Give the backbone structure.
Amino acid sequence: MDASISNSINTADRASYITNESTPLHNVKLKDEGYKYIIGTFGIVTLIITIGLGVAINKDPGEVSFGSGIAADRSVCTEAGNEIFMKGGNSVDVAVAVTVCLGVVFPHLTGIGGNGVLLVYNHKTEKILMCLDSWPPAGTVVVPQLMLALYTAHSSFGHKSWSIILEPAIRIAREGFQVSESLIQSLKHLSPNANDDLKNWLHSLKLGTVIKSPQLAETLAVIQDKGVEALYTGSLNDELGKYFDSKSLSEPSLNKEPCSEAIGKGYRLISSGVGTAGPSLLNSLVDSNFSNSFSVQELADFLIGKEELSWPLPSGVVVSVTDKDDNYVSIVSGLGPVLGSQNLLKDGYIVGSLLHRSNLSRINSFGAPFIATTLQHKCEKRIVTGGVDLRDMLQVLPKILWGSEGVVNSVEAARVRITENSLLAEINHPPVLPFSLPPASMPYPVINVIQKRGDEVLAYDDSRSL
């Protein structure tokens, strides 16, 4: 593995360009496996609302390297991923390291106590290597299985040792990291029923100060040394045992449903499988008339009669990684809502939602990873991304795939948060409308994107990561 890497930077442009990809791609015949769902009509939104971005964003080239890219929520975790690249790691190694790191610096959104969905794909062979979903069936107890999913992916495809992969996150937890705006904003989601440890910790935080997480560092060190089994049946079992019975902890399992695939509008589209938002996402992209300029009405028409319209607003993080061997990885992880179950354990992490909404009989995960590759010219355009909420992805992906704005403007364009009863505007990305919308609570879901065109790579971090 080549040690040369790139930085997806968190500055004004937040983008990196990487060139000199050296390996030709193979051509294979693709299958057409679309997903069909019933789409009704929708009357909650009567006005056509076009989502747009009023100010163009200037882009400034970043570092040059050999086809590797990282798009993630925090620069400190991107640097952790770069560290793994420099040690000879591949995209799976890096994506796992970055995701674990985000559990340290964004503990209100993801971490050991959460779950996730991941997709691994190799573009040289055009083969899907892995789809994993750690969210259990809706209406059941949600045992935290994110670390199990990461460990499984790493065991299957990683190049470097598990110990090396966890080292950056452990170091950051021990040495400290800056309190982000996103973490401060999570106070707005604090429930009166939150445990005292979480309340006291959150109220002690100040924006921009450096804090340490020694308990979390020790927990990760145990997982580094003993493996993920320590969480469920080993020395770390006592804390989780307060919330989950021994049978649930002794029998963790991952959903290995096949990935969803579809062919449409010049692309091969790949996402996660049944039980996630993946099938509905691909169906919407293939069968819709979405373009680079579309209305909320068009999006709403897709949601009537679907469970997606009644989904709560989820939270989480998105990690997208590519390497010079054209391994593409997308990991979408979270705790459910911001702050999960509102229980901070003595082991230093927040437990995610303890129970899925029982009426969501079909969907376990509201988000999905996403990969798109052009059909006619395999090197023309490839997209690696994901999102924690289908409703956000449908406001961004059509622009990236078929619009003329480009990745940066598409990601930074205003979005509307859509719920069963209301439309909500993002505070820092307000839509241009003839009337005002109530504000959506921060922090907002991000969509971090890697785009490969020929031998050029653009890795872009959504500024909503704060």
User: Anything to note?
Assistant: The chain has 14 helices and 18 strands. The radius of gyration is 21 Å.
